[in-house]
Amino acid sequence: MPNDLERTAIADQDVDFHVIDRVAAEVLETMFFTEAVANGCDHAWFGSAITARIQFEGSHVGQFLLGVSLDAARSMAAGFLGLAEDEMTEKDCRQVILELSNILCGSVLSNRWPDSRLSLAPPELAGCNCCKEHAVHRCFALTEGALSVTICCADAPEPRV
Q1: In tens digits, what is the pLDDT along the chain, a chain of 161 residues?
Q2: Could you tell me which residues come within 8 angstroms of residue 102 by beta carbon, excluding any fewer than 6 positions away?
Q3: How far is CA 115 from CA 5, 41, 58, 110, 112, in A?
Q4: Cα-atom radius of gyration of the chain, to the nearest Å?
Q5: What kind of architecture, by CATH, is found in domain 12-154?
Q6: What whole-number distance in Å separates Cα of residue 7 and Cα of residue 56?
Q7: 65 near 131, Cβ under 8 Å?
């Protein structure tokens, strides 16, 4: 296992899917009142999903990507904001998904690499839920739809001296 304080690339054997599964289940249940069950990937819903991205750097460099199907986003936003689904606007849904990406990213990365030093950029809406670097991807079935988490890491540049 690589030293967490060294800048490293991510590899499939370096990621514990149980961390992603556990954190996603806990966050979604306690803060968004929905159940998340790890599921096989069926990406037909990606085209209309709300997607968010968070860039991170430090002891690891990469991005955290979150995709949420529209029905799930609406339901989760309503639960998070304490509003009825028919009161939700598209802007409300996007803002809540950005907040969810921030919560999940921080929780997953701090659980996965507890001794790491990372700086997270603010979450932003993304056009897709894909990356070209080393990636770990997990899909979840929700009562109301689907959610995906992708963590992409790249070799970090050598620190400047």
Answers
A1: 233 323 333 444 345 677 888 889 999 888 888 889 888 887 788 888 999 999 999 888 899 999 999 999 999 999 899 999 889 899 999 999 999 999 999 999 888 888 888 899 999 998 765 665 567 888 999 988 999 999 888 754 444 43
A2: 54, 120, 122, 123
A3: 7, 31, 11, 8, 9
A4: 16
A5: 3-Layer(aba) Sandwich (3.40)
A6: 12
A7: yes
Degrees (nearest 5) of the Cα angle 36, 15, 131?
80
Which residues, at least 6 apart from 68, have a Cβ–Cβ distance to it below 8 Å? 49, 50, 51, 76, 97, 100, 145, 146, 147
> What DSSP state is assigned to residue 121?
P
Continuous H helices in 49-89:
70-81
The type of residue at 52 is A
